[in-house]
Write a structure and sequence with these properties.
52% of the residues lie in helices and 10% in strands. It has 466 residues and is α+β, with helices and mostly antiparallel strands. It folds into three domains: 156 residues, Malonyl-CoA decarboxylase, oligemerization domain (Butyryl-CoA Dehydrogenase, subunit A, domain 3, Up-down Bundle), CATH 1.20.140.90; 135 residues, Aminopeptidase; 136 residues, Malonyl-CoA decarboxylase, catalytic domain (Aminopeptidase, 3-Layer(aba) Sandwich), CATH 3.40.630.150. Strands 1-2-3-4-5 form a five-stranded mixed sheet, with helices on both faces. A three-stranded antiparallel sheet has the order 6-8-7. Helix 5 runs antiparallel to helix 6. The N terminus and C terminus are likely disordered.
Length: 466
């Protein structure tokens, strides 16, 4: 973990490098013919940025290249949605692979297969836009601009699937640039700069932080911790952050953890670290893995500080459970549920059930087999669980430990999961083994209590979800 003087030195080095790039950019502008100002709209605007992209790829001098890259990114930032889509179209069609070059390289390799000709074929097969992105990344704040560009691209993909080839190349590059080895984990507390704390409030995606007082309750007490991961190119932008409650037992509900009037525990008296919120901050990095053992690193940081901690668990939401349950109950013979349980769960779509203690008990009992069926049998076409949070934690090497009906009685919790929350257990000695079982075979490592929640005869197998 980077902290104190080391962190200050790292940030000074980043600042120096950024200033140096800016100087190179300004000097580079004088080494090239004047870059025309982009004033026109629509097709002319797109044509101008494409023309500059071709110029960037043809340049060999770094100073002039940085200047052009900066102008391209400045121009892109000023575009409206239409010209941006047109630019993406050009990236997909005009900056793709060079088919004649690939054919020639293939013929050369077939005639004389060796490492050199194989490398030539590899280089020939790379789309031109990948090299364009690499050169754009040389501009000051280039990485930040490209992450923002991919956010725009992702927003368009649902309507323009033909642009997926551009996204594939950005994702390929980001997977290398944001490799876990480049990330820095930092403790976030009440003394962290307000600039970063504001972003923690804004990016919290699981349990809304209502105001600064609410944030203080999550950071300042002795039994609360927060860690965030940063990248040197985005030093003031958290990529992902984890909120942790220190406790004396595994919790079953979120409300007591976040209650404004709760009594904090002395950290030295706690035995359990509860990861109750994990938020990804950059939409442009969606789908980019920050490393399979992210939680393990935070757990090890906590263990060094508090050796008495021996249990590391999550209290996780189940955001897709309600929608899955509705589809499941619409089937003629829903697997894993008795007719009585089916009726109880169909009636639980109305949140008023939480006002009747008898109905609460009935719904909670019925939710257990339904939830077990959801986690253990409901799979995507690739054999992985349909629940995105489950895929994240199982991929990190956790075990599905406990199902908690009634875990989240907030309007959001009732709407998304019928109040269901779950605990994933991170056994530090078995994380790698669980991860390998999931990665190689799609195995959902689950506790005996979760498995017992299934009916002895769960009925017909569930069809993969798409």
């Amino acid at each position: 973990m980077v902290a104190g003087p080391d962190l200050g030195a790292a940030l000074m080095n980043i600042s120096f490098f950024s200033d140096l790039l800016s100087t190179i950019t300004e000097r580079g502008r004088s080494l090239i013919e004047p870059l025309r100002e982009i004033r026109p709209q629509g097709e002319q605007q797109t044509a101008a940025i494409v023309e500059m992209s071709e110029a960037l790829l043809s340049r060999r001098g770094e100073a002039s290249g940085v200047a052009i890259a900066s102008r391209i990114l400045e121009t892109y930032a000023s575009l409206t949605v239409g010209p941006r889509i047109a630019f993406f179209e050009a990236l997909a069609t005009r900056f793709g692979c060079d088919a004649p070059r690939i054919s020639a390289a293939m013929e050369t390799y077939q005639a004389n297969p060796n490492e050199r000709t194989a490398q030539e074929l590899h280089v020939a097969a790379e789309p031109r836009r990948q090299e364009l992105f690499r050169r754009l990344n040389l501009a000051p704040a280039g990485t930040r601009s490209l992450v923002a560009m991919r956010e725009d691209l992702l927003a368009a993909l649902s309507r323009r699937p033909d642009l997926a080839v551009v996204d594939a190349d950005l994702k390929h590059l980001f997977s290398s640039w944001f490799n876990r080895g480049f990330l820095v984990v930092r403790r976030i507390d009440w003394t962290t700069s307000a600039h970063i704390l504001e972003k923690i409030i804004r990016y919290e995606a699981v349990h809304e932080i209502r105001d600064w007082d609410d944030l203080r309750r999550r950071l300042e007490p002795s039994d609360r911790r927060c860690f965030a991961f940063f990248h040197p190119a985005l030093n003031d932008e958290p990529l992902i952050f984890v909120e942790i409650a220190l406790a004396q037992e595994i919790p079953a509900a979120i409300e007591p953890l976040l209650a404004a009037d709760r009594m904090p525990l002395a950290a030295a008296q706690t035995t359990t670290a509860v990861f109750y919120s994990i938020s990804n901050c950059q939409k442009g990095l969606q789908g980019i893995s920050f490393g399979n053992f992210l939680i393990k690193q935070v757990a090890e940081e906590l263990k060094r500080e508090l050796p008495g901690l021996d249990t590391f668990v999550t209290l996780s939401p189940v955001p897709g459970f309600s929608s899955w349950l509705e589809r499941h109950l619409a089937q003629e013979n829903p697997a894993g549920l008795t007719p009585e349980q089916q009726d109880i769960l169909r009636n639980s779509a109305d949140p008023d059930w939480v006002l009747d203690p008898e109905r609460v008990q009935a719904v909670n009992r019925a939710l257990l087999p339904a939830a077990a069926c959801y986690f253990l049998h409901a799979k995507k076409s690739d054999g992985k669980p349909i629940d995105p949070v489950a895929r994240f934690h199982l991929g990190n090497g956790a075990r599905l430990e406990r199902l908690n009906p009634g875990g989240d009685l907030s309007p959001k919790g009732l709407r998304q999961s019928r109040s269901l929350m779950v605990n994933y257990l991170y056994d530090l000695d078995r994380i790698e083994q669980n991860h390998e079982a999931y990665a190689n075979h799609g195995t959902v490592t689950a506790s005996a209590s979760v498995k017992r929640a299934l009916r002895a005869d769960p009925g017909r197998a569930l069809a993969p979800a798409h």
